[in-house]
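User: Predict the structure for this protein chain, please.
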Amino acid sequence: MPNPLACHGCFLLAALALPLAGVAAEPAFDLAAVVVTATRQATRANEVIADVTVLDREAIEQAGPTTLPTLLSRQPGLHVIENGGVGKNASVFLRGTGSGHTLLLVDGVPLGSVTSGNPSLHNLPLSQIERIEILRGPASSLYGSDAIGGVIQVFTRRGEGEARINAFAGIGPRGTRELQGGIAGGSGDWSYSLGLSRMTTDGMSVAADPVRYRIANGSVPNADADGYGNGAVSARLTYRLAAGHELGATLLEAVSRNAFDGGGVAVDAYNRDKTVARSVYLRNRFNPLWTSTLRWGLSEDNSNSFAPARSQFATTQTQWTWQNDLQLPVGSLLLALEHTDQAVTSTTNYAVRNRDVRSVVIGYQGLVGAHSWQAAARYDRNSQFGGRRTGSLGYGYRIAPEWQARISVGTAFKAPSFNQLYFPGFGSATLQPESARNREVALSWERGLRNASLTVYDNQIDNLIAGTTAAVNIGKARISGTSLAYGSRTGNWTSDASLDLMRPVDASNGNRLQRRPAQMLKLALSYSPGAWKVGAEATAVGRRYDTTTQTRAMGAYAVANLHAARDIDPNWSLEVRLNNVFNRVYENAWSYAVPDRQLFLGLRYAPK
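Assistant: Here is the predicted structure, written as structure tokens:
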């Protein structure tokens, strides 16, 4: 395996300092928490044989008026690019894999564009999200296509107990305004939540440099600001039919208007985007050994572009899932059937506009003494290219009460998108899926509310799809890396630190993969004395290249943020956040601007 520790000396020194850091973008990871994404079953976090991060509602609120991509960019192993600021197209590189190699789920429903093949991150409002789980490593054996780098799952807000109203109002630079409110609670066999939000900003010019922007994009940028506005609603309703039997429905819908530079026209070009995730489920615990969950889900990714002529790319995914969780004398068994229909509606003439995927999933996990394990296998039958098998196997051994060693292997794949298959003049209907094989070993330590981990992985990807004039299977990539993480909650102090050292390269020539950094360091610290909570965050990212030929170099950078909150009384609090404290100028995508120093103020009502 290539040595992932060959990096700049400052990152090595930072790695040595991790256990000493008094430095978290979110509260230290609760090892007793229950996670779902890693196994598709509710499992204690410290029993999972996977690299998982959980962001709860407190972490989301602490992020301030921002976007889901921005919050994700502060998490270990993720490099996120927004092309020109808030609301612009976002790409996520998880453990050095491509922007289409991360599966996005909303309450278990896959959400993304089946034309571009990328997850729809930029349009999801944080105000409507209760919890985020990030699973690093291949997960196609559980979820099918796209999960080569991992899975990001968001859960909408839920309610229980006495009805509670929540509200937030915030302001920021360049006309940024955010309003949100909701109610959540439960009575008898019913529970419910409803939330509304509206966020607008005048934005900034997406072009960091007009000349370079024209070279990169083939169009002349306007000098004016490129604004963004987003309105969203979320809802959840559940009814307990009887003990162990529940019927529920969820909704997350966001509509936005997003200005961009479309070739120097007098009036800015813009997109009208609509993102929807709906689900209805029936969960039945027939006996202590068998729980059945039947779920219907529908997601929409609808983009209308006016530049100035209108073009539309609207995609839907409809999925039926029947999952059965069986408790065995030793361990638990998962059996699931899935049927997914994908469809395209567009002003572009695609030769094929529909496809379906039929899937079978089996999983087995358990814990006996110092030994734990997880295994999964999946078969997907795609109407376009036939069958695909994936599998994973992981084993953990608790060396001592505070130490656990883990090893795992897994395969994954990504189906070609409709653009890659059928876009006129570019697509090729004979493309085969990209496939991956990942191996990793890990060592973790936990003592009370302190934890640390070291993970070493090697991910080899074949049949990469590339091409400037036509899509072809030409590529191979190898991504090897080392991840270190540390978290602690001691008294009023909460700290978190992570270091990622990667070698993401084209296996045919050794060139660095496009826009992937080889080093990322992320530190944060918060202090909560009484009614106050104050904190700082820092992110350092190594040198990247904007092309696969290692041209258009983008230099390393470091960004720091500060935040504070003051409780006025048990229900009201004032919040302030200062991003990019030192006003650093840098680029994540060549020629695209990033936000400068920005101050946000907010007032929150959240009864305890």
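The chain has one domain: 9-605.
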